[in-house]
From TrEMBL:
It is found in: Mitochondrion; Plastid, Chloroplast stroma. Gene3D superfamilies: Amidase signature (AS) domain. The keyword Acyltransferase does not apply. It catalyses: L-glutamyl-tRNA(Gln) + L-glutamine + ATP + H2O = L-glutaminyl-tRNA(Gln) + L-glutamate + ADP + phosphate + H(+). It comes from Picea sitchensis. Its EC number is 6.3.5.7. This is Glutamyl-tRNA(Gln) amidotransferase subunit A, chloroplastic/mitochondrial.
Amino acid sequence: MRAAVPFPRLLILRPVNTPQCRRLHTVKASQTATEPSKLQTNRSACSEILRIRKSLLSRERTAVEVAEEYLTRLQQTEPYVKSFLYVSDKVLADAEEIDRRLRRNEDVGPLVGVPVAVKDNLCTRDMPSTGGSRILEGYRPPFDATAVTKLRQSGALLIGKTNLDEFGMGSTTEGSAFQVTSNPWDSSRVPGGSSGGSSAAVAARQCAVSLGSDTGGSIRQPASFCGVVGMKPTYGRVSRFGLMAYASSLDVIGCLGSSVMDAAILLGAMAGHDKLDATSSKTEVPDYAAKLVPIEALDSKPLKGIKIGVIRETMGDGVDSGVISSIQASALRLEELGAALTEVSLSSFPLGLPAYYVLAPSEASSNLARYDGIRYGSQVPADDLESMYGSSRSNGFGQEVKRRILMGTYALSAGYYDAYYKRAQQVRTLIQRDFSKALDGNDILISPAAPTAAYKIGDKVNDPLSMYAGDIMTVNVNLAGLPALVVPCGFVKVGERDLPVGLQMISAAFEEGRLLQVGHIFQQTLQNLSFEAPLPNK
């Protein structure tokens, strides 16, 4: 190991500003007049952030004790999971400083003492930031990404940097230059990617929450594979300053956690306009967490008035039957909670994948030009400048990164620009229009987060087209710039193991609050489903 919108019909009962995690129990009859026994709290919906914060503010535990708990768990599981590329040597010292502030009764942020892992394509001034690439091995940036700065200001305890596919280019985390991360549910399987280290770290309880990035599904697909919650915000909702660029018009920083409440708190802490990122939005950031209602404050139809569209193209050929069954059961559960279900068609949906794999590599071929051994990256000695450029990039980049640079350069080259890049941009416009039309008549659209559950490590290493096809459920959302939330919703039986499946919820731009509210209600009512990953098998 390397040392958003009001919801007058949704929130129908008494307001609750500080919802807490409660044990599994039936709602008391005095709290609601209609069928209270149908609404029960699911343990997986419990907020780890609120648990830690409550224990610190009540002096039940110290920040050092919390840090030691997670470091012990990390030490026990890391040999099998391999989520981290670097674990901070300052964790306990930072925790001691938090304890001193608490003893002095100083104001502390919403993430005080919460162990947070950071994907290694986000710059951190006190830890290496490699992007999972040999070309940046040992690189220590002189600044923090804006998202990281905001987490520090909120009191977070940064525990380390997590593994990823090199520069975010991959769907398995096998593309890392340093190690392959395993899925905590079955260490012979991939955790997804490219934020596989971040999702596996949450699933293995090595950290409370983590940061990831999402260019074509890199938060949502790993969230589904690892049975955790993944939040991809609207493009521009979170500053990209300090994120190593893959495809600048698609890249988004988001979060992973065990509960929707944790995702809401983490997103609220890092969202907002940033003068260092010209693409960040000035749209007001609501208090996402304050609007999440605990189950005992709701009647039996808390989603009455919410319209949900099931995307037809995501429920057919090429999707595992067990995944379809889990999504169908989730749709029925949402309907039982009062939502009105319809089927919607996105005619441009099948075009999203080929368009994405023209646009994203095209942007990557430009963005990665800076890694040449002089401006950035490890330098390989050579007789002349041109040879040094070639040798540094050839030795520094992995196979998948080289493949995508070549794809992008080809698509942008003279004679092919109109046939590929320009046409892909036209498809992107069609996708945006289709989503806009579908969301005119629906509050939320739902689909699987991935067409299958986690597959075996090595299964798709030599078949990149098969790996690319696994992004079919997610890339369209990035092309449209919309927010999406993945909530674990069921399991697929594979051999003797139950592997998690995630439900993807999509809403209009800057309506993360709506997603989080519906997702929170849904997660709380998943009775008899536990998404706590077992210890990794040896």
